[in-house]
Queue: 2 jobs
Job 1
Amino acid sequence: MNESILTLVTFLPTIGAVLLMFMPRNDRMLRAVALIVSLVTFGFSLYLPIQFQHGVNGFQFQTDKVWISLANIHYHMGADGISMWLVLLTTFLVPLGVLVSWKSIHDRVKEFFVLLLLLETAMIGVFLALDLFLFYVYWEATLIPMALLIGMYGHERRVYAAVKFFLYTMVASVFMLAAIIYLWAAATPHSFDYATLRQLIAQGNISTGALQWLFLGFFIAFAVKVPLFPLHTWLPDAHVEAPTAGSVLLAGVLLKMGTYGLLRFNVGMFPAQSQHNAAWINTLAIIGIIYGALVALVQPNLKKLIAYSSVSHLGFVVLGIFTFTQAGTDGAVYQMLNHGVSTGALFMLAGMLYERKHTYEFKEFGGLATPMPVYATFFLIAVLSSVGLPLMNGFVGEFLVLSGAFQYKALYGILGASGVIWGACYLLWMYQKVFYGEIHHDENKTLPDIDRREQISLWPVAVMALVMGIISPYWMKSIDPAVSGTISQASQARVAPAATNLSAGGQK
Amino acid sequence: MLHQILFIIFGLICVAGAVNLLAQRHPINSALSLVVVMASLAMIYLLLGAEFVAAVQVIVYAGAIMVLFVFVIMLLNAGAEERTTGSIIALALGVPGVIALGALVGWTLISHNQQLGGVSVGPTNFGKTQNIAHLLFKDFLLPFEITSVLILIAIMGAVVLGRRES
Amino acid sequence: MNPISIDQYVRILPELVLTAFGIAVMMIDPLLKPSASRRPLGYLSLLGTIAAMGATVVQMHALATDPSFGTPGWFGMVRVDNFAVFFHMLIPAISAICILASLEYLDTQKINTGEYYGLILFGTVGMTLMTSAVELVLIFIALEISSIATYILAGYRRRTASSTESAIKYFLLGSFATAFFLYGVALMYGATGSTDVLAIQRALAPGTPSLLAYVATALMIVGLGFKVASAPFHVWTPDVYEGAPAPVVALMSTGPKAAAFAVMLRVLFATTGTGWFALIWISAALSMTIGNFGALIQNNVKRMLAYSSIAHAGYILVAFAAQNDIGISAAIFYTASYAAMNVGAFAVVSHFASGGERYVSIDDYAGLGKRAPLLAFTLTIFLLSLIGIPATAGFLGKYYVFTAAISAHSNAMVWLTIIGVVNSAVASYYYLRLIVMMYMREQTVAEPPTPATPSMRLALVIAAIATIWLGVIPGRTLDRATQGAADLRPKTTAPSADLKAQQASQPATLVK
Amino acid sequence: MVPLSWYLILSTILFCMGVFGFLLKRNIITNFMSIELMLNAVNLSFVAFANYWHARAVQGVTPAGVEKALSGQVFVFFVMVVAAAEAAVGLAIIIAVFRTRETLNVDRVNLLKL
Amino acid sequence: MTDTLHLWVIPLLPLVGAAINGLFGRHFKNAVVSAVALLFTAASFAYALWAVLQALHMQLPYQGSVGTWITAGNFSAPFGFYLDQLSMIMVLVVTGVGFLIHIYSVGYMAHEGGYYRFFAYLNLFMFFMLTLVLANNYLLMFVGWEGVGLASYLLIGFYFLRDSAANAGKKAFIVNRIGDFAFLIGMFLLIQHFGTLNYTGIFDALKNADKFPIDQGWGWITITALCLLGGATGKSAQVPLYVWLPDAMEGPTPVSALIHAATMVTAGIYMIARSHSIFNLAPHALEIVAVVGCLTAIFAATMGLAQTDIKRVLAYSTVSQLGYMVMACGVAAYAAGIFHLMTHAFFKALLFLGAGSVIHAIGGEQDMRRMGGLRKKIPVTFWVMTVATFAIAGFPPLAGFFSKDEILGAAYTSPHGGHLLWAIGVITAGLTSFYMFRLWFMTFFGEYKPGAVDVGEEAHSPSAPAHPAHAAASHSHGHADDHAHGHGGVHESPWIMLAPLVLLAVLSFTGGWVGVPKFMGGHNEIATFLSPVLESPGNVGAERLQGAENGQLPAKEEEHAREEWILAGTSVAAAALGLFFAWFLYYKRPELPDRITSRMHGLYLTVLHKYYIDEAYGLIFVKPLLALSTFVFWKGVDQGIIDGMVNGAGTASKGIGNELRRMQSGNIRSYAAWVALGGAAVLAYMIWLGVGK
């Protein structure tokens, strides 16, 4: 079971997708099967944290089989504290995605759920793959279902958004492919194995110049996905046009693939280069935090605002990762999970509103707290979680990230922390625009509050937002060792500059 | 010495025929120029001692292929060619390209003159049909047989494409 | 004395089988009513291609059991080694799928001549023979067989101006290029005294080859480059593909191309000493760039795929340029994966084109996802594969090509790889355009598409499965490609191979 | 003794003339004839080289057998066969083109472009 | 650490109440809702009282932890609670006053929509406030810190249909966040230097004088202290972040009483007091604290002079009083600050509740110019308000006198203070007295004149710039309308509202008696009580602080006492002067203020508009920022540059494609030319290669 659980979790959705493909076009049944499949997947994925040996660094549940012997490509999957929780996040969000799509998708239902489930497989695979080739396969495999989901089920400018999303990511990830192949060729015997390549680089067999290019090759693929300023402009478009489930998974999981990649591959494999490049990366991350927030502040469109808020939030994650401090990186990983939950929730909520109003423009809303009190409450919880209110999940991550950033370089911590203010600004502004004030549109007075299905889909995220804010050590006990294992080389590489940084931020 | 003179004569006829092919505007004239080229090439083959090839050259090329050409020219009642300027590129890029190409090959050959040495036509069995037959029906048996497929599709093609509208 | 043993016949068994079936087709054709559908002939020729694949299996068996089988036969004319066997399997398979796709097409276009199938079969004879031939005479004849067959097929819709134009362009330029190739052969003969590829290789191996050999190689590159449609000899491709009947394009963009690449591998690696590396490098870069950028603005699907085929030829040339064993096997594998996806794509195009090939504009594909889900789905798979999305043949092929390039451990190859990956990213745009059309736009063609016939469905499904198969479990195929590559590089070059291995074991010294 | 290079240069000249013809003539049939000219040029090279190599083989300079050294001549034979086949097919295609467009001007055969 | 007291129960009880009301309150009757809310608050109060009594016999500080909250690497923050003398006072004030206000709210909110919501929020506030004061580490304190901000946000925006209310809530939260930002930085500094945020961890470490000498310059301790001050500035509405508090009056009056007067806004003072060990090591920071407090006090007091909205007057008064407390902290008189915090909680809660009662009585009117003569109509309210007014004005022997006197005394004597501080304090006291009595006279004396002033008159709408139409007479939809019907005339509030008023009045009267200074013959119990926690001058920390030169102070006790008498007298005189002017202007000659204002129109307007600070903030920060975001970042960088480049790359690619395909002219001869040219190129290269070898 320990050997095959990861395979099972990864490919259950695919099996479900195949099953759906051959089912008659009975929409109700299709939805039900999709929901059941995703729930079963979630159920199986719960096996991971239960059986996980906490406090141990290294990959567990590993399975390693030769896939393509000629090129020494392996089907090597494994989970550590970081990837396990990201998998859980994925399996947790997909059923919700199915639920929120229950009514909003009524055309080409079968294709929708097939794509959704295929997407799930690919996303889980990305987090679990320990063979770089396999990783790339999963990585690219996420692209198609997502682009199709946006392009087929999105709103007015869906085609533009889908193509933009696809091209942005595609162009960026080919550089990663080149880098991966380069590493493969550099290894003796040729290998794609994560641990092997990591060791290869650690041994210093590759010249610094080449390493820098390799680092950049990986970095650009991940930076686009994150998305890091200034590579972020696909995100608002993709989000605005995507169907709700698409947005939820895009924000909830796909963006995490970028940060996960940065942590696992850039920091994990290229510690010295990470150190070397940290200054400008962190600068970009901080620009992203502030810039994203400021632009979010002036958006006239609910979804676009949330999208830009993602730019800002993911900036925290990148900042955390590239501090190479335990706290910062722990926080970054935690923030990945948090962002998945809270922004996922926000997108679900936005979708529900869209189902009722068929628009995301703020000027069509206002005063909705009166007709929709329950909805307003859930929205508030999501907003607060996103704002980073203590005792909600967002705070834990943000605090740790900023604390780490501050330790790394005081200025980073200070600039990053200003994001706390901006976050409050745009999120509260958004909340006010939607829920407060008088109702200006008569049809809004009779908007139905969310129904039971919608409540069922929202409760899990609301509860998670709280639970993760209160008992974070439950997660941290597995994240902590994994992070320390991943950043150990990077933080060692930093010993020399660390001293100067500390004194700069401290006594003078 | 005689060889050289003969070569120069027939070589010049060849080149003249080729030039005429280019110069003539009516395809039938061009075709006839080509026949001239081929015939004089056959002579050059003889100069080289390749009797069999020379014979086949006259029979197949000048005899069969060129007849086919003339036949088609007649069939389609092709007139003198129009002076269209459809391709500037052919003039602007193609001609210099070809000149360069010819010059390069020619330069190579001249520079290799010493290495290559001369051609002598002595009492060898070089052009003997018997020797060629040996080669053709033993070593080159497979290509020879496979040629049948080639001819078969050529026939099929001609039939398919040339068939009258039904 | 009977020097021709059974063994010898086994060496040309697929060709014999195909010829036999071709003749059978021609014999039966007159027996059918002139206006009747030629479907039965199609089935017969399909059987022929399958039989040819069976014959290849016999060859494989022979190769596995008898070590001497891999030596040249027919007085040094053919050599059925792993390299040839790979293509002997691939090319009849391509023909089979094209025939499957043609069954419906011919009926739709109201073409009732059995020669079509005959030409395909005979053309296949030429292509298969090209891959096993090791004597330039035979290579030339086989090349001409395959070429002439495709010239004719390209003009098969002879009442249509575009089709005949396609044929005449292909024919004239093809012959033109053939003349260059031939001139090259002549000079090579002059330089080495032989037309036997292996003998040429032997002659060129020691010492520096004469200048004549360089000139000869150059002219042969021109001719072969034309056949594989690599820049700058690619110019004919878009016009010819656009005008030719769709299933024929499916064939000629894959079959003769695969065969031509096989010849190119054999010939160029026989002349390794002449250092054509930079030429191939430039040609690869040009092909990829011209192909992909040219395709960006096409509105005709066939023409777009034509440009794409130029680009794909460029990817294969990248593998050539790597000049190592991985490169050869990558090129071999790529031809197979490209065949799978491209045949499939053109099969869909040929179905959807309808009578008179009316619907070949990208806009006509709008809403196809709803109207014909299977067609759209399979076409999506092919397009994704052409983009190079993982888990498809196209990705693995591309990956393997780039692997070869980077394994060459030279900066030039790293740059070529970068050009390649950037190009493949650019390329994704125009393939994606078609997917977008199918799934994200509303239908514009008023006419409902005719449902695909079972034979067409079968063709599509086979191609799709092959595409996925090669992308997910390529192990066997890759192994075969590697064996083929090993056979292609005789042991005479062993020292340099060892050198490469040595270099590979010390990457640090190379990449610095 | 005629130097081998004379033959070869004549061949080159003829080949280039063929290419010129293809590039400059407007009539499709003439274009095709130019190709035939190119093939003839090649044939000349083949025969010249065959002679050369045969002489070398007789001298025992090359490892290939005396007979095999004649393969150049055989090649010429095959080239002629191919040329014949090409002519048959080519002219058929030209006829088909003429039927659909009523012209033999190569510049007017440009429906497919860009 | 065994947690015998189970302190976590204290904050948890209101949370349970909040959860019950929040989740199910919609389906409850009002009575049930109030019962739940009151029950849990009362229980919390009772438990807190019990715990305090228990703890008095234990070794203090008492600590208990219920688990780890955040952990990363070596850093960890527990859910730990902490009880010492300081938190005892705080927890009792919070639960006690909170409970009273809960009771009051039952009556006040009886007719409001969203009743359950109100009580859920109120209970939620209690939870966070108690967490704040009971936390044993800064991070958990920050939980309460932000949490009360949330509750405040929700409660200010309680009448969310009103844009002004929603804006005010948002403003409060955001301005608080600015403070929190500083607080966060402070915490990061603490983590950096101590590796922990636990009070004991930090303060024990700080006791090591060798390792942590007094920071005479601007070292990290000073920076830390200033960051903490920044946090306090936001929460306790100090200059320059006070702007949210007056707007916060958009909330229901009990909220103003509880959150924006008695408890939440004092969190900053609590925090500074809690962190006194840090501040004591940072004299520069202390100076700044004092200056900030002093400035706030005088500034807010002047702004209070011209306000006509009864709640706004009280709001500015609150800001001003908070300034006093901060000033106390700034002169290291932490105990005095806490003392004033406590008495202020009593009388300011009383004032707000009383004002609420007034507003309630006259149907939602908040403009004082439309009041008057209510003395007879609502006598109970009048009397309790009288007590409160005298208390805040600082008349002995009411609570305000003692605490204010303590602060002024400290300001005068403290080495950090000085006479200027003291003088400003005294002037502020006079101003306080003036505007409070102005309120008192305008409301309860003269004639009742509803509808006296035009609402729309520009000069009389001293509200936030964003919504000028409101606030001057904040006719709320939720609030005023509900009250308007069924209330024919002015009427006294029900007993459920009056009872807490009376209780608070008693406390306002007597609350100061725990701090009667020594020179008056008292024992200053509160200072004694707090002395183990707060190292005020004379104790260890102060010695370190002051060095030897102040060591002779106790010797001159008698002289000192005389001086203190004079100081007390001065401040009482100032208060009396304020009373006199108020009496003269608003009772004796009520037409004079108008004449004065019209004479000094500019000055008056400036004061009325709060020195245009809000407008300035809007003009300097908000508007440019929004414009920057919209036009430079979003439309410029995002859509213009980045997307422009992306799209440009697309267009360029197509352009290249377009150029490349011109090769494809369709002409066979051209194609042949390309082949020939290519052939020539290939040939040339190969020959070059061959020759080169």
Job 2
Amino acid sequence: MSTLIAIQEGPFSVDTLQAEVKKTSKGIGALVSFTGTGRDLSKGVDIKGLDFEHYPGMAEKKLMDIRKRALLNFDIIEMAIIHRVGHIDIGEDIVLIVAASAHRNDAFMACEWAITELKRTTPIWKSETTATGDVWVTDTP
Amino acid sequence: MSTLIAIQEGPFSVDTLQAEVKKTSKGIGALVSFTGTGRDLSKGVDIKGLDFEHYPGMAEKKLMDIRKRALLNFDIIEMAIIHRVGHIDIGEDIVLIVAASAHRNDAFMACEWAITELKRTTPIWKSETTATGDVWVTDTP
Amino acid sequence: MIEVRFFAMLKKLSGTGARQYEVSEPITVLELKQLLKEDMPALSEVLDSRSVLVSVNEEFARDDELVADGDVVGLLPPFSGG
Amino acid sequence: MIEVRFFAMLKKLSGTGARQYEVSEPITVLELKQLLKEDMPALSEVLDSRSVLVSVNEEFARDDELVADGDVVGLLPPFSGG
């Protein structure tokens, strides 16, 4: 299970995580993945880079909790979540969620729910580097 | 563009296709990918393997058409589609759709629409190998 | 010459991947279907079932569309990609 | 001892990542906030704004929850992960 939930500094691979998820069942017919990446623009302001901080321990716990609730509330077979912390350049990946199910509809719903839930409940904070300095982001869509 | 739409025999990489898609814009903040894989069970029957046949030329044209309509009808930045043909073992990947947008909601909608549209309009046929022989599949969910 | 191409189960039913038909003037898709049914009775049932789509030069075509010399027609059973 | 941990902009506002408080008996989260505001006036505004969540031993806690010796309290500004 531990490889399915991670907070890490380095980059991740969608192929690797999907392979990890697929190991859990031969009944998987659909994998939906969400990858969040660093954009060059946020509310009209040029962004030069991002930095993420998390509450070690609690953030991992909240991600495990999202996985557990997704498995309970959606007809999915497995879910995995990786969130990076530390410095992220524009264009780099930040977060990855993989949802696996027999039929695609369930994986789409669970994956979309999970990223919304992650933003709502996981103690992770982003600071954006702009021309005028670093700013902690306090409102996320 | 040609690397964004493909029908091929060999396996694909989600990481590679997502990297290809990300090259098109620094404004991408969300990538949603759908991977369809070979399940071991179809309508209660054990499946040992799959074989895909396509209409060369027309199938590629229909995939390009899906990408074009997705770019028109959804607020996405790019879309890529790969479908494999030939023999596919259980657990192997069959199809990959990547939708990229500034905000996640648009990528989720476009990706889900595209796989439904692919199943409806693209001349590709699947035969399932079961204990009693090979059967062409005529109804897909 | 009109080239008719068969796919998946229709390839199996017809026993071939493609067949050529000589036409003196353009005919409709419906007339071509009639010609095919006479030539290959094994296809009669599926061609009547409306589950088979027809393409002309890689675009979907309706029964009243005309097919002429040099066109490539595809007989497409229900898709199951994805 | 209650350990209070500060994150993101609160770490910057408070000038520290963590602070310890000696309590003779359990106090509520609200009482702890009062104590923090007296100790660090720079935090007053955000602690009153209700945009800051509080965790006790890594679980979200409401204002009336009790905090006791040995507990770890987190002061969590609005999340922006994902």
